[in-house]
Each structure stands twice: as structure tokens, then as C-alpha cells.
Amino acid sequence: MRKHIVAGNWKMNNDLPETQDLITSLKRQKQTSNAEVMVAPTFTNLWHANESLRTTPIEVIAQNMHFAKNGAYTGEVSAAMLKSIGVTTVILGHSERRAYFNEDDTILTQKVNAALDHEMRVIFCFGEELADRKANNHEYVVQQQISNALFHLSASAYKHIVLAYEPVWAIGTGETATPDQAQSMHAFIRQTLAAKYGEDLANKVSILYGGSVKPNNANEIFSKPDVDGGLIGGASLKAEDFFAIVNAF
Length: 249
Ligand code: 13P
Known about the structure:
Largest sheet: 8 strands, parallel
Number of helices: 11
Shape: globular
Number of strands: 8
Bound molecules: 1,3-dihydroxyacetonephosphate
Strand order of the largest sheet: 3-2-1-8-7-6-5-4
Strand content: 5-15%
Radius of gyration: 17 Å
Oligomer: single chain
């Protein structure tokens, strides 16, 4: 049975007092599902969030990291730094990192390797743009994003990999992939993994959907057999909405 995961990506939102308020509200929520729950605050609030949520089942994760161990990389944060404050999961390859910070397959490969070298878990994001989908090229684009950054890995590395399909046209737009579009892409992703590593491995990797998941659509999206959870942006900034999604399983 694959793990169900619901992760909140807070992006560049919430200063420290706002983070404290959101954490207070999160602690008041009641979880009725079996999903693993994670939140990803910005770097400055990671330590505080991790300390505050230590007594809860909510895992605090990072939104990004650099691939180098340390050194002259002004403004960057390493895997070792994250681990030193108890953060052991990192989101890599988010479309906003790809689009605004020029993170390409080569950089992402290095980041994935660095995270795994530090025994971190990776939530690896990818997804097509609207033009790709209109040109009916979405499966090819996704297949390339996955194979270019991940297919050098050994099968055993996948114990530490979670995939997150986030079609760019559905992020922050209020437009979501239909449950059938999500299912069809997730099934394709699983087939792509199976072709390379075999069905057994493919059936064990959790594949999350991200892109305008809200309390009113989570249930239908999560009901699809190959959708194992969600990566939630906007709706994760309100504790009630986030837990309505967590409990949609
Ligand atoms: P929204 O839920 O705001 O569309 O964001 C999705 C996302 O980018 C999560 O990483």
C-alpha cells in the first residue's frame, strides 16, 4: 500500500509571527485520515516551525536547497544545514524554481544527488506548461523531466523519492486538472517508472498531484487510484482548508 501524503508548500509567504499563528491553528485541527502531513515554510522559519511542530505528526520540510556541501554560494542553504536543524525532506524541481531561477535538469540532478547523499527524502516536482498540453506534448515533457533528473538513480534510491505532478497551468490559477486528467497523467508516470525499474517499484512510489487543490475538489482528485496525495499551495495557508484537504482521503 502506497503512502498517502499531503504537503503544504507555503512558498514565500508568512513572516515569523504569521508562521507562529498558522502553526497555532494547525495544532487545533483534527486529523481523521491516514495521510502523512507535511508543511514547507520559508527558510527563515524552518527552525521555529520544526521546534513548534515536534510534538505533532506534522513534518516540517524545506522548499529548496543547494547541491554543494558548503562554500562560496552566497544566499544558498545546503542539505547539511537543513539536516542540522532536523529537516530531512526537501521539495526539488518546483516549476517556480525552474521558471524564475533557471533550475534545469542538470542542476536538479545535482540537487537530487546531494539530497540523497545526505539521506534526505526528495519530493521531486515536474509538470507541463499550457502550450505543451495544447500541443498534446504533455506526456513527452513529463517523461523527459523525470528521466533526465532521476533515471540515473538506482532502484533502491526510490525509497527516498516522492513524485509530484504539478501542471504549470494549474498552479495558483484556480484552474485544476480534472480528476481524469490527473489520473491519466499519474498512470502514465507510473508506466514510465515501470518501464525503467519494473512494476513492483513503480507501484511503491507515491505520486502527488499539485495545482489548485482546494477543499471542494480534493476528495474527487484523491479518489483516483494513481493519485497518492497532494502538494498544496494557496489552500495550505489556512489551517482549516489545509486539514479539510488532509482529511479528504
Ligand atoms: P496552488 O495550490 O496555489 O495552485 O499551488 C500548487 C503548488 O505550486 C504547490 O507546490
